[in-house]
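Table S5 (text form). Sequence records supplied for joint modeling of the two-component complex.
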Amino acid sequence: MILPAARSALVAALLLGAAAPASRADPQVDYLLHCSGCHMPDGSGLDQVVPTLHEVIGRIVAEPEGRAYIVRVPGVSQAPISDEKLTDVINWMLAEFSSETLPDDFEPFTVSEVGRSRSQLLADPLKLRAELFPDY
Amino acid sequence: MKPNDLIEHGYIWLDDQARHSARLLARLISRRSFLGRLGAMFAGAAVLPLLPVARALAQEPPQEVGDTQTCEYWRYCALGGTLCACCGGSVTSCPPGSELSPITWVGTCHNPADDRDYLISYNDCCGKVTCRRCSCHGSEREKPVYFPSKSSNILWCFGTEARTYHCTVAGILGEATDLGK
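The corresponding structure-token record, covering 317 residues in total, follows.
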């Protein structure tokens, strides 16, 4: 019987291996470069330290405040990439990690929406997160 | 000269050549460093698949050249710290007794062997006193500490049992055809 930890590592390795040859303008490359250092290449995060990107963010974007929060959180809004690339990364991330929890009427993020939200400084992300999504 | 003498001289010449080669090899390669690298290779191979960032360190480029114990090795282009490869570990594995930090920052380096760019994950190994060997200051495409997620000067011992910095490894996440402009 394969151990759960080994199985997870194997699945993750297979996932990365399958997607390894990244092409130009591939949002996964930007995800790996700007997000995976903390959220891990497979988006799993780190228990008690870094929030997971699996499932829960699909529910967060169901509300307008949640859509704005996802973009305004400092790691996202301050990523050194253009609004266009950031929009691609966010939409890729939602489809890759949280497709099963996205609302039925979900509309992908647009460049103008991302540009508008990332310009609004979020000085205390933990406080806002606790107010909006106490379970996250 | 008799045929038997000729053969005898031939054996002596061969012995001399073999002795000379063995001594030359012994001078160039230290037994301790060889055993260290061999041990690190086996230990790393056994432990890596179980680590949470195993996927980050499992991706290898098609080909590469260089000495992993020098700062000039291509993967270290943005590595600020000491090389685990000089401290009993390897380019992708921590020395025994230290713990790989799962949280890190990701940079890009150019591989001269295949003329391509790769995403490099600079994971720190933590929980032991700082290794003082092979201190490097790579800074290609890294940013000042006021931009912490892209800084090689941050001590990335997060999510580990102990926060003491020991050394840094450089794993490949994949090919980077887009440098995140």
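Note: The two ends of chain A are 33 Å apart (CA to CA).
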